[in-house]
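Budget justification note: compute hours in this period were largely spent on complex prediction jobs such as the one shown. Inputs:
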Amino acid sequence: MEFVNSIINWIYYGIVGFTAIIMIYNLIKEKSWEKEVLYILVIIPFLLRLFGLK
Amino acid sequence: MRDKFIVIRKTIFILLGMLVIIFAGKSFYDHRNFNEPVVTNEGVTEVKKLGDYFTGISGTINDCNIYVFEGEEEGSNMLVIGGTHPEEPAGRLAAYLFAENGKMKAGKLFLAITANRSASTGTKLGGAYPPDFSIKTSFGERKFRMGDRWSNPLDQWPDPEVYIHYPSGQNLAYVDTRNLNRTWPGRENGTLTEQTCYAFMELIKKEKIDVFIDLHEAELQYPVISTIVAHENGEELATFVSMMLTDMEGFRMGVEFSPKNLHGLSHREVGDYSDAVSLLFEAPEPFLDATRGTTSREQLLTGKDEFVVMAGKHGLLFEQIDENGWPIAKRVGRHTSAILMTMEIWSEDYPDRPLICEGVPRYEEVIENGVGYYLNDPKSALKNRIVLE
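Corresponding output:
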């Protein structure tokens, strides 16, 4: 069970990293300033988790 | 020209975002890595690690310090743990007063200030808790981590849909898989929280602990408050402690018996799975009440809250509160007196193997002088007396 949990944990970090990359890509491509702000706000908790801070 | 403008705008937004990440990240990092100095007094004869009793917990965030007070004379063995729920600071501070003032004359005391270290490295998600609080002393302020009820998700994740307690098989709320007071007696190959309980059970068995005490605080809207929760093996002891505290020390302390079918809690499982008498002490903490107003350091330490008072006027509370609140000194003093009284009643029952502790202030003294009066100055202390918590 603990092994499965750790696998899920690593998959989760993978998803977080992948989503963060997608959002950074979208941020770069985005032309609307409102959506740029939205991407920046949404990406913050993803990066904090990726860095193991929260 | 327009493209250049967009690039500049994006750069500004990204820099602002990075600024937020740096400030937020620093706050979270500092909270998780802040080491509290404990200025142990001469009564602490040895500082062990929880991992000394179970290697599975060695080197993890929950490999907490175990302060050992070897008495001058032979006697019984007692284990006191604070910080099962680090969002209940009176338990940890009471343990601090023992570590910085206590000395065993007879018997042996084992003390954990932060039983769930992981839970002390974060606060409740969305709860807007302060990351720390400070206690005023004559030499300045001593800072302490504010914590959570549950182990940090950074250390134990994911949570199951339903938490199935081991070994009873009882279904509990999913989040309680990270609650140190729902995972007793623990499991050798379990989650971090289960392994922490398992390590404490190993300590209890290997050190032949006679009395085990778990220090807590509770919201005033919770019926189990200002009380001792006792396993059936400690009913008589708890009843006498309650009577004597109420009679001699001037504060009301009830007794409740540990339900036999409510599993995972220390007062049930420690008694069931070891020879130790198992007790859990609850003090009032208005900060935890859902109807509280501000969630601030001041509210945490003064226990003053007009909204909780209002709830009391509507008969929604299980403990009294007025405009004077529940100051931290009152809550800490309840715990120190209750522990000392437990030792005294135990020693009357077993005079051939007593538990006698000196130097720790009681309820009235803590209220009169404040908690800070009994904390030592790390700057003027001998280096070998300082332990990081």
